[in-house]
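Changelog note: in this version the structure field was regenerated for every chain. One regenerated record is shown below for reference.
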Amino acid sequence: MANDKEERLQKVIAQAGIASRRAAEKLILEGRVAVNGQQISKLGTKVTSADEVKVDGVPLDGSEKKVYYLLNKPRGVVTTASDDKGRQTVVDLLTDVDARVYPVGRLDYDTTGALIMTNDGDLANQLMHPKGKVDKVYTAKVKGVANMADLAPLKRGIVLNGKKTAPARVAIEKVDQDRKVSFITMTIHEGRNHQVKDMLQKVGYPVEKLRRDRYAFLDLLGLQAGDYRDLSHDEVKRLKNGDYRYMRRK
């Protein structure tokens, strides 16, 4: 930190590029953070630049170079930096990345597609904040022969767990009458757990497969499952400036 202003511990950890603010809170609750040699396991601690903060015994280094990647997450990989069950994580896939990166948001274990990986806590928090309204585009393979009349409630927003969703954009891409399956494209900007699956389930179309095709303007062109690439300087600049508009690439 550049001054002696008190800041919440999780914010300082996020700004140092160790984890997102939410993930930093988890690190604290797990007892993996120490301030001036004292283990912290409850939220609410504030620190200044005069305090020594360590995560897993390693002092924070606010000068760590910020890095940004787009990953095409495959099925069967968990969207966390580590997993207590020993499952492969999205961080494991970035084999030649030395920086301590973490995912921006989550994709379910069996969901594939676009996922930003970074150590820039400020950008991660910006992208995940509800007021940012970052478009996330999904393609779902669902059971049943879909029709727009059934899907219409999604365009107005539906109630899930007592809270109404924001309106989604929905289109039917393909219907297989013989196999009784359909392919539906949905665009949302919220980030509730299992949201796309739950929305489609509620209108009568259980999801068999789900892929996130796009996050903001970042698509999967040129990336096979498990592949990743650096974000360009211009892409990072656009994200930081809140310019999430999509322009189809060739």
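Spot check on this record: The first helix runs from residue 9 to 15. The helical segments are 9-15, 21-29, 90-93, 121-128, 148-156, 195-202, 233-240.
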